């Protein structure tokens, strides 16, 4: 089998050295974990491994011989396959067509659709995904789209497999399926690079861990290293409190949802969120959490019910009116729904305040620029400059930019859907501090999350959804994983494997 080594590689963008003399060796039959905060250089390292970037210093070796990997096709010929954090798919094409993008099988000069269908079914069976291969990719949820990406990489029969945040959008059941596949690949001698912000996964799947900080090599340690030591290597300091919730005294009702109903997805859901309060929204995958969040924000309509913000009714299916009422949303999919990736950091930060701060129809460019710089500095967004393209930022820094947009807008109600998905432990704590800041200023936060430790650690009250129903609520001080899970399955029509992430908080 193949050994892939990076020897003293560096990568320079403009005047910034984003990777500085890093060495990593990926051995056959072992899982090499790359660990570091968002912006530490992990993604740049794997892009050099996979032919997307070329190192400016150092060398790449395969089985001890120096090689050049000029592009992705060359990497594939060397037996290197990648499952990227950001999905690489065409929503309008079918699952089958996405699996064969760039490598269509032919027969007699024509596309061999029979072979495509057969191999696509085999690939989905391998990962335990029961979907019709003719289904458009855009019709799948994020988790199932990620599973298709995993199947696509496995189809390449690679000897080196790079997995960049493969579990970020997966349920517990899907994670276990992936880990089982990884164990089989290890037994066959496949070497793997694994990136995850969930520290509990490292000892579960890894053999060794290389830690990067600010683009530099910190050290390589066994995967059995205690989580507290890994965190210290990552961020250069100890983080004692993973969930630094500062609870205040809730005051007036800021958000009232009454009888919200939408088809089979939401069934007469009613609750309140008060100023100064964080309310967690828990439940199984498909329970209706995201649907409730989107309906409140006006992204989706609903059949009946009402939404009231600070005592005033908000019309349904009107994002503009909802924002004007003082509501902000950090969506589940920040890249497609929360940001304009080709716009600058400054432009994204100012999206929600450009019109409200205009004077006599003219944009207050000077004032906006000042506020954008202050917000980026306060949130510690790692960037080359405030004019840098937002799509070039790391995932955690993109998430901070979404938060920053609503921080500038001084929203009354902040809706959060998976607020720390794909975010490292250090940036998580910074995001939790931003949540504290919203409630300290009298705002209200509704947070939907599949990360149960996050819900229990950062909420004042917990609402639990089950099959579109609000099945119960309790103070966070009385909530346990067992109580939440019992409520989460209470409206299920038949027994199902709980698909909630009970263990992805870094303890």
From TrEMBL:
| Membrane topology value | Peripheral membrane protein
Q: Which UniProt keywords apply?
A: ATP-binding, Cell membrane, Hydrolase, Membrane, Nucleotide-binding, Repeat, Translocase, Transport
**In which compartments does the protein localize?**
Cell membrane
Q: Name one Pfam family in it.
A: ABC_tran
Q: List the CDD domains.
A: ABC_Carb_Monos_I, ABC_Carb_Monos_II
- Molecular function via GO: ATP binding; ATP hydrolysis activity
Record EC number: 3.6.3.17
Q: Which GO terms describe its cellular component?
A: plasma membrane
Top EC class, one word: hydrolase
Task: Output the superkingdom of the source species.
Answer: Bacteria
Q: Where is the ABC transporter domain?
A: 4-239, 248-492
Give the protein's recorded name. Answer: D-ribose transporter ATP binding protein
Q: Which species is listed as the source?
A: Bifidobacterium subtile
């Amino acid at each position: 089998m193949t050994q892939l080594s990076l020897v003293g590689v560096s990568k320079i963008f403009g005047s910034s050295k984003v990777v500085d003399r890093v060495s990593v060796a990926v051995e056959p039959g072992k899982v090499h974990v790359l660990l570091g905060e968002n912006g530490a250089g992990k993604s740049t390292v794997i892009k050099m491994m996979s032919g997307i970037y070329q190192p400016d210093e150092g060398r790449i070796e395969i089985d001890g011989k120096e090689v050049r990997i000029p592009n992705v096709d060359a990497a594939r010929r060397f037996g290197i396959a990648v499952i990227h954090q950001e999905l690489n798919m065409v929503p309008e094409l079918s699952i089958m067509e996405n699996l064969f993008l760039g490598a269509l099988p032919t027969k007699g000069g024509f596309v061999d659709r029979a072979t495509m269908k057969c191999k696509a079914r085999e690939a989905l069976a391998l990962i335990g995904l029961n979907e019709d291969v003719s289904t458009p990719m855009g019709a799948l949820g994020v988790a199932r789209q990620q599973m298709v990406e995993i199947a696509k990489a496995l189809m390449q029969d690679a000897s080196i497999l790079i997995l960049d945040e493969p579990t970020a959008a997966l349920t517990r059941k899907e994670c276990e399926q992936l880990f089982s596949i990884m164990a089989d690949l290890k037994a066959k001698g496949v070497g793997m690079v694994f990136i995850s912000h969930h520290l509990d996964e490292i000892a579960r799947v890894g053999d060794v861990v290389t830690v990067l900080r600010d683009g530099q090599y910190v050290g390589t340690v066994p995967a059995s290293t205690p989580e507290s030591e890994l965190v210290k290597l990552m961020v250069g300091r100890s983080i004692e409190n993973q969930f630094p919730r500062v609870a205040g005294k809730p005051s007036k009702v800021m958000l009232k949802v009454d009888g919200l109903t939408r088809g089979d997805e939401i069934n007469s859901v009613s609750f309140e969120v008060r100023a100064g309060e964080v309310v967690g929204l828990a439940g199984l995958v498909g329970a209706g959490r995201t649907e409730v969040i989107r309906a409140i924000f006006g992204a989706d309509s609903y059949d009946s019910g009402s939404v009231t913000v600070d005592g005033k009714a908000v019309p349904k299916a009107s994002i503009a009116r909802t924002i004007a009422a003082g509501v902000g949303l950090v969506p589940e999919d920040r890249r497609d729904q929360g940001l304009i990736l080709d716009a600058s950091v400054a432009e994204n930060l100012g999206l929600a305040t450009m019109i409200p701060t205009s004077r006599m129809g003219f944009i207050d460019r000077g004032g906006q620029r000042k506020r954008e710089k202050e917000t980026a500095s306060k949130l510690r967004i790692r960037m080359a400059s405030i004019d840098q393209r937002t799509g070039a930022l790391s995932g955690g820094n993109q998430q901070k930019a979404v938060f920053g947009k609503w921080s500038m807008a001084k929203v009354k109600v902040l809706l959060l859907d998976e607020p720390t998905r794909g975010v490292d432990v250090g940036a998580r704590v910074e995001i939790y501090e931003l949540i504290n800041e919203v409630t300290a200023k009298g705002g209200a936060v509704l947070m939907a999350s599949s990360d149960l430790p996050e819900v229990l650690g950062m909420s004042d009250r917990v609402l639990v959804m089950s099959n579109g129903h609000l099945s119960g609520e309790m103070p966070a001080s009385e909530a346990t994983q067992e109580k939440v899970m019992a409520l989460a399955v209470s409206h299920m029509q038949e027994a199902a494997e709980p698909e909630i992430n009970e263990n992805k908080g870094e303890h």
